[in-house]
Amino acid sequence: MHHAWLDWQRRWHLRHTPPGPLRDYLQQPLAHPRTDYRQLDYVAIDLETTGLDCRRDLILSVGYVIVRGICIDLSTAYHRVVRIDRSIPEASAVIHQITDDQSAQGCELSEALADLLPVLAGRIMIAHHASIEQNFLANACKRYWGQGLPLQIIDTQALALRTFERRQIPFKVSDLRLHALGNRYNLPRYGAHNALSDALAAAELFLAQAAYRDDGRGLPLADFLC
Question: Are 189 and 43 in contact (CB under 8 A)?
Fold first, then answer.
């Protein structure tokens, strides 16, 4: 039912979107949820932002990497700093290590979206606490093309929460953080709050979560979608 609703949204937005990167994205069909997850392509994405409110805060950087089946294609790794029209709040600069000077040399958000949308087309988005990426990207698409961005989404944080609850594993909120979960699966540790390294960490976490559940016969995409 959710797949049918999302595909209806995609077709509705397609009818109302002007020519450009978003329209090209919307022309690509969604993956069928019964497809074996190992046969699909994904894009692990992370955004660094000035805050958590997509109506008020701004995207500072975009990082992504493509996952092909159960392999991460490092040749597709992408990272861009985005130029914004205001000073970066001190608290954000401390967390993300992106300064006003770096932002001033960055690209326009429209340029970053024009790079990202063709990569996302026909693929499933992987993100950790994915509502942030979902809301900021949808808001940006509305700003430039007047329509939202229907996405098939795998949220690695939501998958972890399901596992903890299903197996009745006690946990703290901090246990659901990206790098805490990476430690649980003995994954490499990267510096936090860099869009590309966080995207790579989310890709590795998803593959670890999938491998932990897969008995070798594969699983349908629906088992992982939000």
Answer: no
